[in-house]
Design a protein that fits this description.
The structure is a homodimer. The first copy, chain A, is α/β, with parallel strands linked by helices. Helices cover 31% and strands 25% of the residues of chain A. The first copy, chain A, has helices at 18-26, 34-43, 57-69, 88-93, 111-119, 139-151, 169-178, 205-208, and strands spanning 2-7, 29-33, 48-52, 74-78, 102-106, 120-121, 127-131, 155-159, 186-191, 199-204, 217-221, 227-229, 232-234. Chain A has a 5-stranded parallel sheet with strand order 3-2-4-1-5, sandwiched between helices. In chain A, strands 7-8-11-9-10 form a 5-stranded mixed sheet, with helices on both faces.
């Protein structure tokens, strides 16, 4: 049968696409990380769920593939998009274990987009998305990507800006960016996008350097043109005479 | 009244979020570029539409703001996301003309995500999004962003890869990338994502250099780890022991 890897957006009921909703409704089993299946259980209480613990990514995807190979249609759910720091690639990487399973990837609204909409319009122009988690990526590579993104004058979106073990990573990232960007660069962050307790703040890069954010936060660093209009973070496209 | 700037996704009926659908249904008027209002007219034939021609971005947004200022709820619709190369920023930039209007930005699934899902999972890891259109951006800035993205080993998504006047821009972009990336780098492109005539191809960067694509195409250039699995373009996240 078929494995759908489904991005369900930020976690609000209406942040998911109609396609994601239809697929989740039509599947026999919903699998995923416990926090995500708990969210979906509220919206689709009648479905069957199989959840796995944090950091059990390989086991989670193997179980989803096995369940599909056993003859059931399975939705493996990811918050935001199914590709971006999600499970879609791993499903293809493990497909050799259950080669008869067909995989379909279903896109969702990632935090760069849903968080950007909360702040205003920071992502109008070219941008880069970088995770500060060095669990799976050497920190030197992350540093190089930050440096290159600053040199390119991208708007930059940071995922996983911190964790218990990486409390100082956002400050370290800001220090790299401050070598290339003004301390006045307009920045913003959004916590718990689309969910209870959503909060956001717009501030300068210099202020962000000393800000404390948590792992449920997405951080936005403006490009050289980003400005504040009516309290919103706005990166202009560059239409003339505006 | 209120102006909603709404990203409606790739253009398939079920590619939009429930939020976008609900807002479009609840608004008094739908405004936007003719091609987009024509798409939405198929889905919501009962609504009132006001459409504007290509390149009339400023006039389009002014009209939307004016219509809202006149006391109607307006949805200004953008394909993909409302921020990314969309109209969200311009709405804030022109808000001073009608300062009583309230603006709400509604995110949608941009082509990087919906196109990525067609190709497999190219965007698992850090990535950059760059438009090759030099209508509003100097080509030198675009070249620098391409160069920095290649140095950073980002997966790169190219929007607006070509036009009648810019027939050789994709080749020019590939030439810059080829200075830093192997000609064997896995690439892909998707045309007419989610719509009639959707096609895609996976190929090498060397092949992409000589490929002819049109303006309805989104192009993906893998990072150094991107590979082909079961005919799909897959960028691994880096889970150990996979």
């Amino acid at each position: 049968m078929k494995l759908f890897v489904v991005g369900f957006g930020c976690g609000s009921r209406d942040g998911m696409t109609l396609q994601a909703e239809n697929i989740i409704k039509s599947c026999d089993v919903i699998t995923g990380y416990t926090v995500y299946t708990d969210i979906l259980r509220l919206f689709f209480p009648e479905k069957e769920y199989i959840s796995t613990a944090m950091r059990q990514e390989k086991e989670r995807v193997e179980l989803a593939l096995k369940t599909a190979a056993d003859g059931r249609n399975v939705a493996l759910v990811c918050s935001g998009d199914s590709e971006i720091y999600g499970m879609a690639a791993l499903a293809f990487e493990l497909l050799h274990l259950y080669p008869d399973v067909e995989i379909e990837i279903v896109a969702g609204v990632t935090a760069a987009l849903s968080g950007g909409a909360v702040l205003g319009a920071p992502l109008t122009h070219d941008f880069a998305v970088i995770s500060l988690s060095d669990l799976l990526t050497p920190w030197e590579k992350i540093e190089k990507r930050l440096m290159c993104s600053a040199m390119a004058d991208f708007t930059i979106v940071l995922y996983n800006p911190t964790s218990k073990k990486r409390a100082d990573y956002l400050a370290k990232a800001c220090d790299i960016l401050l070598e290339y960007k003004s301390a006045d660069t307009v920045c913003g962050y959004v916590k718990n996008i689309g969910r209870d307790g959503e909060t956001h703040r717009i501030l300068t890069l210099g202020e962000l350097r000393n800000e404390s954010v948590d792992m449920f936060t997405t951080v936005f660093i403006g490009n050289s043109q980003t400005k504040i209009i009516s309290g919103k973070m706005v990166t202009p496209r560059g239409y003339r005479n505006v």
